[in-house]
Design a protein that fits this description.
The complex is a heterohexamer, with one copy of chain A (65 residues), two copies of chain B (219 residues), two copies of chain C (204 residues) and one copy of chain D (246 residues). Chain B is mostly helical. Helix content of chain B is 86%, strand content 0%. In chain B, helix 7 runs parallel beside helix 9. In chain C, helix 4 crosses helix 5. Classes of the chains: A mainly alpha (65), B mainly alpha (219), C alpha/beta (204), D mainly alpha (246). At the B-E interface, helix 2, helix 3, helix 4 and helix 8 of B face helix 2, helix 3, helix 4 and helix 8 of E. Protoporphyrin IX containing FE binds next to helix 3, helix 4 and helix 5 of chain D. One adenosine-5'-triphosphate (ATP) sits at the interface of chains C and F.
């Protein structure tokens, strides 16, 4: 193990801000992208099921009348 | 009514989300072009920085002036505004404010990042942002006058620059001056209070003047 | 009451008309007629205060319209050649905004109903740029349903409309006149509108 | 083995195929990332010149590489879509752009955070850095253009034009290195020369790059699925999908 | 036909004499704004000069791109061009050429005067003018692609900058580089021949690409 | 001969029409009819090659129009909703340039005569922006007098025209048909055009 302690690890030989700043932002970006892309799909699916329902409704009305 | 106009213009801007972004990126790109043309020496760049950022902000704000009235003019909405039972100055004020929200605010938020690229020290960054915050609304307000006067003239896009740039110059000088003064260790207070005075004056005078210009252009 | 006294219009080096006189009472319809380029649009723009007559004056309830300013504008609706329809907004948004500009704020529900009535049901949420010419025109005209003003000034309101829509407009105008409204309009199409008092103003 | 490629080039079958592949790539990405980070932070020794700051390399270099690769791949798919009018390839191009822009941003950000301790400044205007910035603009231009156009077919084609024209720009900017005195590290990984850095560092970096590849593929597949659904929402198979989901 | 298009666009430009003048004045004003923002030291200004002049030329040319197709699009002329029995690439080439005659040529003629303001030595002025002469047609040609792609999109004016500026960058680097190289006593030959190569390449490729983009945009 | 086979038009998520078939011979007139938004303009733009049908094909003398390209364009004149009239140019310049674009270069004299014939005598040298709506429309239509093409595709050519001009257009179209021309047109106004073969295409 090259790190003596947790705080040593976090300090990164004095460069903690830069190193962790990089990895943190990378994490945020990746997490953000994943959330966004799943959100996009979820709202889309909700939208689609609404459309689907309304078209089914229309069809039923047509056959009824 | 005032709120209606702002809301409407913001709605239009949101419908075209790209509009807001593109003004911003125009700003970013212009600022980033200079080092390409001038070369990468940091010392020169640092001296240029306030001037370049301010000129870019000015151009970005100016270029989007065309949008302020032109499309309303083309499709006849502006006619309707003139014969609307609302105060025209207020309408114009609303449009200028919406313009600032869409073009000015993003620039102000972006400026520190660009300042860092030019290696400006921390307090100069602060002054740069503050000066832009005071200065960009002035640009939108003065711009409204120019946009109103050049309405419907083709080549208006460039004509408006011609009319408006001379009026922008004091803002530019004191805006960039504030940053330079603070970088040189002199306080930026005097410059800032002048910018504030410009802002007040243009808030009072510009909407009225622009409304008058609109009436003239539409006659 | 809308009155024009000795109106004269000069465009460029051409005098389009002179000595035009009329007076329009409640329930009255004035059809401005004349060949292309005879000055109909020019006259209508004068009546709105968008252009100044070279000579003569226009009075609304006895007072010069220029002097009245907003008081006049609150009583009048003008629909010109240009529709004032924004390509990027939906039909509903267009209607709400244009009527707010005219001084009447309406909610979504009401805008929706007005558009429905104009035959745009199901198209309320499309951006205006994908609408057909006639549909755009209908969006513009829908304002008449919600504006609540007395005086309507309509410049060729029927262009691009199909026969069903023309009939609709006809009904709408007749109803407006019945309720004591006034209409000044131009059109090159044949249209019969029954009104208490119809006058035709013929420009050379 | 004869694979029926045409079968997979229809959006519908690609949708299902991609659905099956996503978990594979996601798991690979997570595992590789864990291994890479472990090597990067616990195995690789301290650099004698840069101290611990060099550990940014494990994210910086993969991000920088991905940003460039993804642009070329995006332009390629867009070009195929334009030339052969295959909707699927255009959709993939559309789906790649945000991920590419994200990696470009990361390369810039991590580079800036690295530059401050190493060069004493967040940013210099040297060729490598500038070209990376321009790459970001190219991505953003592509995305804004597509966002500004409502008709998806037109958006695809217009996007393809600008992506392809933009490719021409990349080598030009890249070669402008000659006209600039550059602070940035040159290529230290190459096939002909023996690696200049410690093997553990190199392995860590390569594994992280692989992890980024896997991640990019997974996210692009997910986004492509979303784009497919958006574009094909009126087709029968999407309707059935909904019927099945009910 | 080619000549017809050029003649028509020039006629339109003449009908609006102000158009030509305003692009030029925009150029002049931008170049003159920088000393205001940056401060009056001659040494710094001299180093900045090629970059500033080139960036200004680039902006001026870019800003007038909107006019290249937009008005033809709005009034339906562009539709007529698409269904005209003439080669569309040739039409586009004509329009790009007309654009250059109207915006590029005046800039080239004006540049030496502005260079003198920045105290550039004589041969640097010569190189500046020559580099602009080679470079501005490239700007018009590349710009045609951007203008075609953003046709009818609102906020197009700024979107076009976003698309086109990254492509302008090589021209900027080598254009400004040529002047700097000659000021530094190295020959400008290499830069100039690269600019020439850009010009040839864009003459061959750009009209075709822009024509394709136009068809895409008008679909 | 112009033929459409099984044409289908989809705009956004709406199918406007499908299975539209027609064939137009020399001397034939086709009136496309239908309420607002039924797809008339969309159909006409397809016939010009400005839009691609979702399905089906359009043939000119037996060959696909896309494949024909310029050969087709040289035989056709399309006048759409938009006039292609430049505000800053005079009527004469507008006419000369638009017909040059269409492949026919005409001299000043000829342009002058055409405009005169369209009732714009004395206005040839005014910039188009001061013309009235109807006059602008006449400038656009004047192209038909000089184009010399066989197939005319006219989208609501009669909007903004006064009765005299409508009559003029009627005569012009009849003459064209007599000489073996073909016309595809839409209009919401009543107009009787005598032709060898008139067909009406009704869109829902
Ligand atoms: C914002 C600033 C920076 C940007 C945009 C940037 C961009 C890039 C790019 C595009 C690459 C890949 C290029 C290639 O493979 O040849 C790269 C690789 C690399 N960068 Fe950076 N960089 C930045 C700052 C830094 C800093 C400050 C350092 C270290 C002092 C650094 C060290 C490296 C190293 C070691 C490589 C790997 C080179 C190789 O092995 O091929 N970078 N960077
Ligand atoms: N500057 C000018 N010089 C000469 N004539 C002009 C000028 N400006 C306008 N005109 C003429 O004034 C008239 C304007 O008419 P206006 O638009 O009011 O006609 P209109 O009756 O509405 O016609 P339409 O039925 O075609 O709409 C036109 O005949 C036009 O030629
Ligand atoms: N993106 C879209 N989504 C939904 N509907 C659309 C879209 N684009 C166009 N439409 C519809 O397509 C039709 C276009 O019709 P078109 O312009 O061809 O009509 P038209 O027959 O010429 O009508 P008009 O008589 O009014 O000129 C309209 O009904 C419009 O609402
Ligand atoms: Mg009129
Ligand atoms: Mg139509």
């Amino acid at each position: 193990m090259i790190w003596a302690s947790m705080s040593d690890f976090l300090d990164m030989g004095g460069y903690g801000f830069y190193v962790w700043g990089s990895y943190l932002v990378a994490l945020v970006c990746i997490a953000g992208e994943i959330i966004l892309v799943f959100n996009r799909k979820r709202t889309l699916l909700r939208h689609l099921s609404l459309i689907h329902q309304s078209t089914k409704q229309e069809k039923r009305n047509e056959t009824a009348s | 009514m005032f709120l209606w106009i702002i809301q409407r213009d913001l709605l239009l801007a949101m419908r075209r989300r790209s509009d807001v972004l593109t003004t911003l990126f125009f700003f970013v790109i212009v600022v980033s072009l200079f080092p390409l043309g001038v070369g990468p020496e940091m010392n020169i760049l640092r001296t240029m920085a306030p001037g370049v950022v301010w000129v870019a902000a000015l151009l970005a704000s100016m270029l989007s002036l065309g949008r302020m009235f032109a499309s309303d003019h083309l499709d006849g909405t502006l006619e309707q505004m003139l014969i609307s039972p609302q105060s025209l100055s207020l309408l114009v004020m609303g449009k200028a404010l919406a313009h600032w929200l869409v073009t000015g605010v993003p620039l102000v938020l972006m400026a520190p990042v660009l300042g860092i690229q030019y290696d400006l020290p921390g307090d100069a960054l602060l002054v740069l942002t503050a000066s832009l915050l005071l200065g960009t609304p002035v640009l939108s307000l003065i711009g409204a006058i120019g946009a109103a006067l050049t309405l419907g003239l083709r080549g208006g896009g460039v004509l408006v620059s011609l009319l408006v740039l001379p009026l922008y110059i004091p803002v530019l000088i004191f805006g960039a001056g504030a940053v330079e003064a603070s970088a040189a260790g002199l306080g930026a207070g005097a410059h800032m209070s002048l910018l504030g005075a410009f802002l007040l004056a243009s808030l009072v005078l510009a909407p009225w003047t622009a409304a008058l210009s609109l009436r003239i252009s539409m006659e | 009451m809308l009155e024009g006294n000795n109106l004269e219009c000069v465009r460029g080096d051409r005098r389009l008309f002179r000595d035009v006189n009329f007076s329009l009472e409640a329930g009255g319809l004035m059809q401005v007629q004349g060949p292309n380029g005879s000055g109909k649009t020019s006259l209508l723009r004068m009546l709105c205060g968008l252009a100044t007559p070279a000579h003569g004056e226009i009075r609304w309830n006895g007072a010069e319209i220029r002097a009245l300013g907003d008081g006049y504008y609150a009583a009048m609706t003008y629909l010109g050649h240009l529709g004032g329809v924004k390509d990027d907004l939906t039909a509903i948004e267009n209607l709400r905004i244009s009527s707010a500009l005219g001084g009447v704020e309406i909610d979504e529900r009401k805008a929706h109903d007005a558009l429905q009535h104009m035959g745009l049901g199901g198209r309320e949420l499309l951006p205006a740029k994908v609408l057909s010419q006639g549909q755009r025109r209908r969006v513009t005209l829908a304002r008449l349903l919600v504006c609540g003003t007395v005086l309507w000034i309509l410049d060729e309101p029927l262009t691009a409309l199909d026969t069903a829509a023309v009939k609709l407009m006809q009904g709408l105008m007749e109803q407006h006149l019945e309720h004591g409204g006034m209409i000044v309009m131009t059109t090159h199409q044949e249209i019969e509108i029954t009104a208490v008092a119809t006058q035709r103003l013929q420009l050379a | 083995m004869a694979i029926n490629w045409f079968k997979y080039s229809s959006p519908a079958s690609f949708y299902f195929l991609a659905g099956k592949m996503i978990p594979l790539f996601s798991i690979a990405a997570i595992v590789l990332c864990a291994v890479g980070l472990y090597i990067g932070f616990f195995v690789a020794p301290t650099d004698f010149q840069q101290g611990e700051a060099y550990r940014i390399i494990f994210i910086h270099v993969p991000a920088a590489w991905m940003s460039m690769f993804l642009y070329v791949i995006m332009a390629m798919w867009a070009g195929i879509g334009l030339a052969f009018n295959t909707r699927l390839s255009s959709m993939i191009a559309t789906a790649i752009a945000p991920t590419g822009a994200m990696f470009t941003f990361l390369a810039l950000w991590t580079g800036a955070l690295w530059g401050k301790p190493m060069w004493g400044t967040w940013w210099v205007w040297d060729a490598r850095l500038t070209s990376e910035l321009i790459l970001l603009f190219l991505y953003i231009g592509f995305m804004s253009l597509q966002a500004a156009i409502d008709d998806p077919r037109r958006a695809d084609k217009a996007g393809a034009m600008i992506a392809l024209v933009g490719v021409v720009n990349i080598p030009i900017i890249y070669f402008s290195v000659k006209w600039w005195n550059t602070l940035h590290q040159g290529a230290s990984v190459s096939i002909t020369q023996s690696p200049k850095m410690a093997t553990t560092m190199l392995t860590g970096m390569l594994i992280m790059s692989l992890a980024c590849w896997m991640y990019a593929i997974a996210v692009v597949l997910i986004r492509t699925r979303a784009v497919i659904l958006e574009r094909e929402r009126h087709t029968a198979w999407v309707g059935e999908l909904q019927g099945a989901a009910r």
